[in-house]
Amino acid sequence: MGGSASTTERPAPQDRKVSTRSKMDDRIEADNERVSRLVQTMTAHPKKRQYGPLMSQGTGEEFDGYKDSVYILKQLYKKMDPAVMKTLGDAKGEVKLSLKYDKHRELLMVKVISARDLSAKDLRGKASDPYVRLDLIPDDSSNGSKMTSYVQRSLNPSFNEIFTFTVAEKDIVNSLLRIQVLSHDHLGKDDFMGENIIELGMINWNDITTRWFELQAETDLDISGDLEISLSYKLPETLLVSIHRAYDLVCRDKNKQPNPYVKVILPGIPKVEETKVQRETLNPEWEEIFEYNVPREELQDRYIVLHVLDKAFLGNTEAMGQVFIDLTNLDIEEGYTGKFPLADLKNSDRVRTKWSQTATVQEFRESMYAHAAYKYPKLIFQNHHGNKVLTVHSRKAGSSAKIRILNGIPM
Questions:
Q1: What does the longest C-alpha to C-alpha distance in the chain come to?
Q2: pLDDT for residue 355 is more than 50
Q3: pLDDT for residue 348 is more than 80
């Protein structure tokens, strides 16, 4: 990896097709064996009829309804788990990066390779002019923002541009790399298309890391403060959640302090509790207790979501941060009391189903791309006529879905 681009002005557009390759590109090319393995993660069968394992090679014959079949495939995967096709707001797609850290020169090197499945931002809703912006947080060495060239009218752009950031080895553990994809607007403000915030302390710097990063909704890094709570358990099956106080909350309006309250949620339990609203304070106190019926044996599969919100008596209520607390290790005899830091967690894996909190979700998504590339199973990739029901099942994810098709249109 070599070279850098430090200008904060966006360069002129590059050609839409980029043929530049590097050794790094070759290392991350998926071979046929891997694609075949991905295809094997899913079986498909019509209603009341079972098929064997999917074929792993062969592209099949061309047919008129390919795009319709890809849409059906995506809908089936989406039904199996929304995380596969997750979109928050307008965030959609993925960006491919390679990252390397040179300890001797104290340089972080980032290659922006490409992006795929981006959202369309032009007035016709068919294309965008995407580019990628990179920021190191915190930026103690004043690296500034780095930007790729923008690619005209593409939802699957190639960039192949390399950037460097100066960052001390002792600081990289606590640093973040913010990757934002935007669409260049010739007349006004560029459109946000999604972002991913990479925790650099979680990267193995002994080798080059190359992977796809999912684009998500914009994360609010201005959120601050802590929430103090207590948890206790009363036999036979009562969980008590005590909301005590919060400290040093974010103030978004210099002319007015917030009106904070806390919303308490246990996913899977149809009961949402709220504290009283404390007016105009950054350090509110509540001292309120909420009870939930949770059998002891279910604690290992439960977690609590605490939303701190600014009550707007006029206008929109604003989020001030969230806390997720796993109940897996709760000592029912001792309970727990402590502070939790508030953060913007809307992009957390906790918004997904339980199985998708692991690397399985990435392999599952790649499996969907492999099925589309190989036009398989034939049950999906054909011209559909009449009324039929398709069912798919993923052994690895332990989930299934069905979809009704009427003359080629998913209902």
A1: 67
A2: no
A3: no
Higher per-residue pLDDT: 154 or 122: 154
pLDDT digits (tens, 9 = 90+) for 266-287: 988 888 899 999 999 999 999 9
Q: How many residues does the chain have?
A: 411
Distances (CA, A) of 375 to 9, 54, 60, 75, 260: 42, 11, 6, 15, 52
- Which two tokens mark 258? 């917030």
pTM of the full structure: 0.54
Task: Report yes or no: 41 and 362 within 8 Å, Cβ to Cβ.
Answer: no
Q: Are 371 and 33 in contact (CB under 8 A)?
A: no
Residue whose token pair is 């106080």 = 245
Q: What is the pLDDT of residue 387?
A: 82
Q: In what order do the strands lie in the sheet with 272-274?
A: 272-274, 260-265, 303-310, 318-326
Under 8 Å between Cβ of 94 and 214: yes
**Cα–Cα distance, 333 to 231 (Å, whole number):** 11
Partner residues linked to 111 by β-bridges = 98, 162
Q: Residue 143 corresponds to which tokens in the numbers above? A: 């690296």
Long-range contacts of 118-121 (CB under 8 A, 24+ apart): 118/92, 118/93, 118/154, 118/155, 118/156, 118/157, 118/181, 118/193, 118/194, 118/215, 119/87, 119/90, 119/91, 119/92, 119/93, 119/155, 119/193, 119/194, 120/155, 121/183, 121/185, 121/191, 121/193
**What span, in angstroms and rounded, lies between the C-alpha atoms of 325 and 304?**
5
Alpha-carbon span 398 to 400, nearest angstrom? 7
Q: How many CB atoms are located within 10 Å of the residue 364 CB? A: 23
Number of H helices, E strands in the chain: 5, 20
Kind and range of the H or E run holding 76: helix 66-80
Strands (E), 248-284: 260-265, 272-274
- Walk across the sheet containing 107-116 and list its strands: 158-166, 107-116, 94-102, 209-214
Helix axes 32-39, 360-374, angle to 10 degrees: 100
Most confident of 288-297, 309-318, 373-382: 288-297
Determine the pLDDT at residue 120: 83
DSSP H or E stretch at residue 243: strand 238-247
Alpha-carbon gap, residue 102 to 110, rounded angstroms: 11
CA distance linking residue 32 with residue 386, whole number of Å: 35
